[in-house]
Amino acid sequence: MDETLLMIPGPTRVAPRVLKAMSENIINHRSALFGEILTETNQMMSEVFQTENQSYLITGSGTAAMEAALANTISKGDRVLNIVGGKFGQRFMQITETHKGIPVQLEVEWGHGVNPDDVRYIMEEEEDIKAVTIVHNETSTGVTNPIDEVGKIMQDYDALYIVDTVSSLGGDDVFVDGYGIDICVTGSQKCLAAPPGMAAITLSDDAWDVVDKTDNQTYYLNLKKYKKSGDATPPETPYTPAVSLIYAMQEALRVIMEEGLEERVLRHKLAAKATQNGVTALGLDLFAQNEVSSNTVTSVKMPEGITDKELRGTMRERYRIELAGGQDHLKGNVFRIGHMGNVTHREIISTIAALEMTLQGLGLDLEIGEGVAAVADTYLTE
Ligand code: PLP
């Protein structure tokens, strides 16, 4: 078994009790017992989304829920405002195109968060925007977008507000009802610390009205079917679900409930702060602008003269710590430290200590201990 420390922005390590839950034998997915499991899991999912609305699990990765959100609400020729500041913002735009919508792109410089005034400006200027998509935590850049402020603006318009919280739910504040989010999507394998392979979605009454009036463009992801089966007694899923992954989701969500959502978000905040302080104490620069730095992943500019292969290769081979590289045009220019899911001070201290040794070994002029001291200082004073 590979015991490499996984400091990537998902998938993340799962707790042993979650692994154990997954090894339970398969039961009939159309039984009262499975209905009980699904009821508890869906209810906890809604608690984590902080919504009164029902949540539905989809067997598929986070992208399945992103696609379900748009495929069920837009028709050919519908205009969708896609806020794009990284790879996952782009994905929403590509899904819009796939389903024959017309993307109206609000391009945000990578490393920056969207300015809510720009959203208001476009909503005023453009007619007939049917939906707005935004990525809460842009994993590719380490930026968190102000979904609360954009949500306030969206109250003044009829367009649906669709939010991707794949890499933030369970690790940052997401108040689906409080922010006026119409459709919120997430994935299992990041801050929720469940294995990859499940997605979750929740819709407001307004969103269901739109779904009811929209010509469905997808078979497997037809949300009306998820609602019909999910709201039945006992609840079911429309097709055979990944039963073992639902056992795992149930257990992972129980872990979250036991920790407490607020506590969990605080733990992520602290991990982010400690990581940012550790990295900057070593003289490295963060890629994301300070005020929008993510709670769950820190994106760092590659130090001059050091390659991605050298840095991440040494971290992996010598120190057995896996970091993530940059995506698209950031490949080779940044590396990313994921600090989501079950990550605590232990993993952050180890990662920054290994990073110091790696960088010094690669010839960077730094004082061993400065990064770790900054991490310790953060944990001792915050
Ligand atoms: N949205 C965000 C913000 C992500 O970070 C990811 C995955 O990294 C996705 C969507 C896509 O999720 P998946 O890979 O589970 O389909």
TrEMBL record:
Q: Which UniProt keywords apply?
A: Aminotransferase, Pyridoxal phosphate, Transferase
The reply on keyword Transferase is yes
Q: Which cofactors go with this protein?
A: pyridoxal 5'-phosphate
Read off the InterPro entries from this record: Aminotrans_V_dom, PyrdxlP-dep_Trfase, PyrdxlP-dep_Trfase_major, PyrdxlP-dep_Trfase_small, SP_NH2Trfase/AEP_transaminase
Q: Name one GO molecular function term.
A: L-serine-pyruvate transaminase activity
Describe the location of the Aminotransferase class V domain by residue ranges. Answer: 10-327
* Gene Ontology BP, a term: glycine biosynthetic process, by transamination of glyoxylate
Q: Which family does it belong to?
A: Belongs to the class-V pyridoxal-phosphate-dependent aminotransferase family.
Q: Please give the PANTHER family that the UniProt record associates with this protein.
A: ALANINE--GLYOXYLATE AMINOTRANSFERASE 1, AMINOTRANSFERASE CLASS V
Record protein name field: Aminotransferase
